[in-house]
Design a protein that fits this description.
The chain contains 15 helices and 14 strands. With about 425 residues, it is α/β, with parallel strands linked by helices. The protein binds ligand F0G.
């Protein structure tokens, strides 16, 4: 459960598609099949083979982010990219290019009593204030659907529309970080007035009709083990604002990923992706997948464990501040790291700390840690991999550690607390109680 990314079990149709792979260096036939599928899934304006290239394949999401922000970083100074919640590599790519990455989480996310479904929304009020004060510094507004850093929570159609309208008023392009677009559409269909009788495909089209472009890691809702892309809407605000970027992006892609028609991926993977995009928008598939996650969240909640509820589409988020609130651990003891270590060592389940350690930082000058707004441990559920009894075992292990929480020791960071992206690199040991 370290990640739901690239951990998908592919369907028999996807495995069959691999055998049809065309590994030509240029213009392999899978590229054109994928083009057609992208047009069908997200809308024709996102993949046109016109004079201006507007669809760029990359081997994974962060490579697409790298290309986008590498180019955008050169377009101005003191730039800000606001989001409903930047993913860690997205933030890192933005910051690496001298741009400020700003999270505008919904206030509902921090309210433990809230039963709001769309806790992934952008905080519209804070966005409005930011636009009024600093519109000229904002090259684009980003919406992550679903909001992975923000508890994996979905974003409502109303919020997408409101954000698009605010963006349009200031002539700023709206971008989606679209990794879990189909799961997001399922929540809209299930919970937003007027959508229950619409197909997932139609809801996805409406979501993307408000966007001027998107980055995506297909390792999530592409149902593949590797793949990503950057897509710019033909005739959209992004291409109007940055007409020179497509050529720069193409150069970057050729230098770093390969020929534009394979973008760092084997030809066979393009076919598996085209096939995966057909399955992922099936309502029965999504209901199976998301119900699995929700059942686990419900079980944990019934036992008093502070898992964000209702759960989002791909993961359980345990609120570590509440988990340890009646214990002696302080934030600098990194209880979330201790918990994940014990869950792995004692029970064999691998979870991911996405909180005080992953999103916090150590200042070597003041020798002080600063902590993020939210402090989660995430159980990401791979797609089409687990059965109910697997997840029941996870619930039992969590329960056992919750009962033991007063005896869970803090953690000492033995290496790397001052490093960038430290959660990928650090080493720990338990403090002796
Ligand atoms: N954006 C979001 C919202 C993501 O969740 C991820 C990856 C990326 C971008 C980057 O995509 O991995 O293909 O480079 N999330 C994984 C996770 C790693 O575990 O949540 P990538």
């Amino acid at each position: 459960m370290l990640s739901d990314s690239g951990t998908t079990a592919m369907t028999n149709r996807q495995w069959a598609a691999l055998h049809e792979g065309d590994e030509a260096y240029g213009s392999n036939h899978g590229y054109f099949i994928l083009q057609e599928q992208i047009r069908q899934t997200f809308g024709p304006p996102f993949f046109e083979l016109g004079k201006t290239p507007n669809a760029f394949l990359f081997h994974q999401g962060r490579a697409a982010e790298d290309a986008l922000f590498h180019a955008l970083g050169k377009t101005g100074k003191n730039l800000i990219v606001p989001s409903n919640g930047h993913f860690d590599t997205t933030r890192a790519n933005i910051e690496a290019n001298g741009i400020q990455a700003l999270d505008l989480f919904s206030p509902e996310l921090k309210n433990p009593d809230s039963r709001e479904i769309f806790k992934g929304n952008m905080d519209s009020e804070r966005l409005k204030k930011l636009l009024a004060a600093s519109a000229a510094r904002i090259p684009l507004i980003y919406l992550t659907i679903t909001n992975n850093t923000g508890g994996g929570q979905p974003v409502s159609m109303q919020n997408i529309l409101q954000t698009a309208q605010a963006a349009r008023t200031h002539k700023i392009p709206l971008f989606l970080d679209a990794c879990r677009f189909a799961e997001n559409a399922w929540f809209i269909r299930q919970h937003e007035t007027g959508y229950h009788t619409q197909s997932i495909e139609r809801i996805v089209h409406e979501m993307f009709s408000y966007a001027d472009g998107f980055t995506v890691s297909f390792k999530k809702d592409g149902l593949v083990n590797m793949g990503g892309g950057l897509f710019l809407k033909s005739g959209g605000a992004f291409l109007k604002k940055f007409p020179k970027l497509p050529n720069q992006l193409l150069d970057f892609q050729i230098l770093t990923e390969g020929h534009p028609t394979y973008g760092g991926l084997p030809g066979r993977d393009l076919l598996a992706l085209a096939e995966g995009l057909k399955t992922v928008t099936r309502n029965d598939y999504l209901t199976h997948r998301i119900t699995q996650v929700q059942k686990l969240a419900k079980k944990l909640n019934q036992n008093g464990i502070p898992a964000l509820y209702p759960a989002g589409g791909h993961a359980i988020y345990l609120d570590m501040n509440r988990f340890f609130e009646d214990t002696l651990l302080t934030p600098a003891d990194f209880g979330g790291i201790a918990f994940t270590a014990l869950l792995l060592g004692q029970f064999g389940h691998r979870a991911c700390e996405l909180g005080n350690f992953a999103f916090g930082s150590f200042n070597p000058k003041t020798k002080k840690e600063s902590f993020p707004e939210i402090n989660f441990v995430r159980y990401a559920i791979p797609r089409l991999v687990y059965e109910e009894q697997d997840l029941n075992a996870v619930a039992e292990a969590t329960q056992a550690l919750y009962e033991y929480r007063h005896r869970i020791p803090g953690i000492r960071v033995t290496y790397g607390k001052e490093l960038s992206l430290r959660h990928f690199k650090a080493r720990f040991e338990f403090k002796k109680n």
